[in-house]
Write a structure and sequence with these properties.
The protein has 254 residues and is of the alpha/beta class. Helices cover 39% and strands 21% of the residues. The protein is globular, with a radius of gyration of 19 Å.
């Protein structure tokens, strides 16, 4: 039986509360905690099996649960698919989350003919997959966040859950962008699924940044993790480490 969004939001709330309490026990008050949650999903050819198995849908639902825990006032998630290019983002929320990834993945394309009552015939068509270049997605997220006022003073910071299953064809550019954007109120939580995610460790330890703006962890699959464990890892660096540091550096002003 599928886990409801309410149950996921409850599990996310428990993880958030656990972190806040642990910091309070150390004498650290994190104050008001909120974020604007974005999900980046890898649509490279090597991800085909993860889409077919429902793994990416599972990830989207879990990230939506985090948003609905009260962390994000909007209670929705902007989803940014990418391969060697950034693809058009879309929104997942409580009203449309069921089957959202497949609806995006498969397009209804007109065939040119007409059926019953003159209705135009369509055929289900899977979007073409491609290579893997993180830089395209990083730039798309920053451009979107900037143009939509997400980085304005007084706005909560942006938490980007960046999912991938392997290395990047734009590795040098990825490093440059993450270093360059370390002064922005954006935390990049990389999530590797599958077995080839060693490049994420490189991004997690980049030198020369104003503050450390990257977290990374890898798992064989998301569906094999308990919700509580997943959320613990997802906010385990963003809340107790990055947020206080970003506030102290003036990167985050709320």
């Amino acid at each position: 039986m599928p886990i409801s969004l309410d149950k996921r939001a409850e599990a996310a709330t428990i993880s958030l509360t656990k972190v806040l309490q642990a910091e309070a026990d150390k004498g650290h008050d994190l104050g008001e905690v909120s974020a604007q949650v974005i999900l980046v999903i890898d649509y490279s050819a090597s991800m085909s099996g993860f889409y077919a198995s429902g793994e990416v849908q599972e990830l989207a639902e879990r990230v939506l649960g985090l948003s609905m825990s009260g962390l994000d006032d909007d209670g929705n998630v902007q989803v940014f698919p990418f391969h060697h290019q950034a693809l058009e983002p879309f929104v997942v929320d409580a009203s449309n989350y069921s089957g959202a990834i497949d609806r995006w993945r498969y397009q209804e394309v007109p065939t040119g003919g007409k059926g019953l009552f003159g209705k135009v015939k369509t055929q289900r068509h899977e979007r073409q997959m491609g290579g893997t270049e993180y830089a395209a997605a990083i730039e798309a997220v920053v451009d979107y966040a900037t143009s939509n006022g997400m980085l304005a003073a007084g706005k909560p910071p942006v938490l980007v859950v960046f999912q991938t299953d392997g290395g990047s064809g734009s590795a040098q550019r990825d490093k440059q962008l993450l270093t360059q954007h370390a002064s922005l109120p954006i935390f990049w939580q990389f999530l590797g699924i599958g077995g080839n995610t060693s490049f994420l460790d490189t991004l997690d330890t980049l030198p020369g940044r104003v503050i450390d703006n990257v977290g990374a962890f890898g798992v064989p699959n998301v569906s094999g993790m308990k919700d509580e464990d997943f959320y613990d890892k997802l906010v385990g660096e963003f809340l107790p480490k990055w947020l206080p540091t970003a506030r102290a550096a003036g990167v985050v002003t709320v």
